[in-house]
Amino acid sequence: xxxxxxxLKLMAFALAAILSIGFTSCGGDDDEDNPNSNQExxxxxxxxxxxxxxxxxxxxxxxxxxxxxxxxxxxxxxGNYSINDDNIITCNNxxxxxxxxxxxxxxxxxxxxxxxxxxxxxxxxKSKSLSFTKSDKTPVTKDNPVVGKSYTTYFSNxxxxxxxxxxxxxxxxxxxxxxxxxxxxxxxxxxxxxxxCIYYQTFKTTxxxxxxxxxxxxxxxxxWELEFASNGTISNHHNISSTAL
Length: 245
Fold this sequence. Notes:
- This protein has 245 residues and is α+β, with helices and mostly antiparallel strands.
- It is 16% helix and 44% strand.
- The chain is built from 3 helices and 15 strands.
- The protein has helices spanning 2-33, 210-213, 241-244; strands at residues 50-54, 57-61, 66-72, 75-83, 88-93, 98-107, 111-119, 125-135, 150-154, 162-167, 172-177, 187-194, 197-203, 222-228, 234-239.
- The protein has an 8-stranded antiparallel barrel with strand order 1-2-3-4-5-6-7-8.
- Strand 10 (162-167) and strand 11 (172-177) form a beta hairpin.
- It is globular.
């Protein structure tokens, strides 16, 4: 009798063990059928690289960390940029010698919302919020097509005085004349290149005065659409400021 009870206990223990293994196996099969049943869905991260537009405003971010932008009256931005862990894009604007921050509020495949913190041409600290839409245009690189090139036009009030605009670096240039008072005072200019257009501002130095040099320096932005010859030289240009700004 004792031997029989002992055998029954062993059988019950073995049956419980078998059932336990069966339940465990079924649970494993469910996990294999639904691999994400107990896992969080991955977060999709989008890259801000590309061209973003909002009306006439634009923000170009190249894959080699070069930024070009026009987002406010009388303000052009370009230079190397970086992005930190807080999703803040900082552009080191070498011409203005002031950083610009683009604080990303929302980013998707087609939309970019940013708060822009900058110091304008008058030295005033400002901020601006903008919503951009992704464009299919090509981002601008530092080695743009006008670096090292120039074009010449006649001065508006003279058929003999020529004005030459030269693009000395990726964002600075000069305007010079071959006659009149302007010939004595080359004019400094700051520009950005975007979509076959140049957006530029001219600035006088401490010795340049419009009444003496004949120039009319202004911080307002002028936009010229450029045409290029087959050899890469600038063959023509058109003032499109009225529609581009």
